[in-house]
Each structure stands twice: as structure tokens, then as C-alpha cells.
Amino acid sequence: MNQKLKRYFQYSISIFLTLLFLYFAFRGTDFESLVDILSKANYWWAVAMLPALMISNMFRAWRWEYLLRPVKKGIRFRNLFSSMMVGYMMNNVLPRVGELARPYAIGKLEGVSRSAALGTVFIERIFDILSFMVVVALIPLFYSGPLTQIFPWLEETGIWLTVISLAFLALFSFFMIRRDLVERFLKFITSHLSSQKAQLVEHITHSFLDGFLFLKEPKLYFMIGILSVMIWFFYIVMLFLPFYAFGMVEQYNLGFDSALVVQAISTLGFILPTPGGTGSYHYFTIQTLTKLYHVNEEVARSYATVTHIIGFIGTMVVGMFYFLKDKLHLSEVASRSLTMDNEESKSK
């Protein structure tokens, strides 16, 4: 019952945030003008963002293989990509459930410990936040306007996200190296449990920490760094191409540098727990285009709406294709503890 109440609370918060951001994004909309702009858009340029999105996801799957390599070598790229797309599909429906769906899927397809896979997903999120901060730090090189006046909270938010991310990275890296301390701590907190349950908790914890083992292999760092750059490059391409769909390159002189700024700030919309960034992505994208680049509000709303819909549908279609093809089960993803691998499940 408590678990159900917890999920209900999480989903309620997600729905509330989605509706709140949608309200702020679309309040005062001139719907007649919005429909007129949408009817005149060149959707070939908008659809062109899909290949860029999938290429960026392929680079992300490739990077995931390097994170998982110390856990299991030779994981098929196809299974990495399919597991990741299933996770993104789930995030579009139930925020943060996708972070559990990925370990579940790759565990089923490749026999990888789901706890270890969850550890790699956790560290990937840390990388994403740190990469986001690098891109934010680059904004002054591409935009010389009143950024801090328009978004006074951006710098402070970035500092806190960076500090928290580095703290988590340092903490779990320390735990990964000093397993002896983890062992002592686990024996202390599991002393009241049965021997079987205590062993299960210890196994899950150590498997999770295995997701950080790549940190012991510096030879992997270079490729992880290069792939991270490529992921963000294609994210920016993905937002740049639709500029042409709405005449924003010609009318507002927006270029690749502008797309970098839009990408950096709109990423906050996906950090928040809204399904697929719905509402939050719209709000931050519209604010960036209208406040920093003086784009017409209805043009900005049209751009945000179309780019979000295309990315959302594209992710859903590809994710659902792999979900059905790999015969995954929604009930297991949504309700079962996905940090357990096959051996752990049997031990229960």
C-alpha cells in the first residue's frame, strides 16, 4: 500500500508540473496566429531532426557499452540501443521509470546484472548533468546578450547541479574502491535481517557498485569523452534543422550557435520529472527564443510544439517497436524491483 501511495504521489507531482509548465508556456496564446504559422511551416526540415535524434541515441548506446564493458564484454550494439530506446519510451509515459526499464531490458537480452546496469545508468545521468554544465559554460562564447538578466537562476542552478553531481560521483567512486567499508556498513544495517535477505542486499549493493568499475580503466575515458561530445553535437543539430521549418534562420538570423543556447537551456526541461519533458521543454524553449533572440511568441510556440511532438513520437515508435520485438513486459518494468538480476530473483 505504501509503495502504491508513493507511486501515486510521484505521478501526481509529474502531472502537476506538466500542467503548470504548459500553462505558463501557452498562456496568452493567439491560437489563430499559431495555427496560421503551423500551416505554413516546412515540415521536411522539422522531420529532418529525427535522423539527428537517432544518431545521437546511437552514440549514447555506444557510450553505454564502454560503461558496461568491465561488467560484461561483447554486448551487442543492437541490444544496447533497443534497451535504451525502451527506457526513453517509458520515460515519455512514466518519468524516471525508464531508468529502471533499461537495466531490466539489457538484463533480459544480455544476462547483465540489472543492479550493475542500473549503476551505469546512474553514472550516465551524472555525466549528462556535467556535460550540460559544460555546454552552459560555453554559452557566453556564442551569446553576448543579457543572459544572466533574463535567466538569473541559471548560474546558481548550474553550480548546485555540478556540486551535487561531483559529490555523488566522488562518493560512489570511493565506495566502489573501498568495498571493505561498504561490507562493514552493510553488515551493520542488515544485522536484523535473515541471512538470505542480508546476502541479497549485499549482492545488489555490490552489483550496483560494479557499474562504476569503468573508473578503474582510464583507457576507456577518451572514447567516453569523444562519444559524449558527439551526443551533444547531434542534439544541437536536432534543434538547429527545425529553425528552417519556421523561417527563423532568415527572419531572426538564428544559426548553429543559437541552437546550442536553446539546447543548453531547454535541457532543464528534461531534467525535471515531467513525461518526456512535456510542458517544461516547451516553457524553457519558448523563453529562450523569445527573451534572448526576440522571436515572435507564436513562432516560438510553434517551434517548441513541433520539435517536441516529433521527438516524442519518434522515440515512442522506435521504443515500442523494440519493446514488442524483444517481448518485454510492462508489468515487470513498472512494478517489479528491476535492480535484481536473474540469480537474485531466483534466490528469493
Structural description of this entry:
The chain is mostly helical and 348 residues long. It has a domain at 46-232 and 310-347. The protein has helices at 2-26, 31-40, 43-47, 49-68, 77-93, 98-110, 114-142, 147-150, 153-177, 179-189, 195-210, 221-245, 248-252, 256-266, 268-271, 280-293, 297-325, 330-335, 342-347.
Order of helices and strands: HHHHHHHHHHHHHHHHHHH
Based on CA atoms alone, the radius of gyration comes out at: 21 Å
The global form is globular
Distance between the termini: 21 Å
Helix content: over 70%
- Overall number of strands: 0
Q: Give the overall average pLDDT.
A: 88
Overall SS class? mainly alpha
Q: How large is the share of residues in beta strands?
A: under 5%
**Count of separate DSSP helical elements:** 19
Major sheet summary line: none
Low-confidence stretches: 337-348
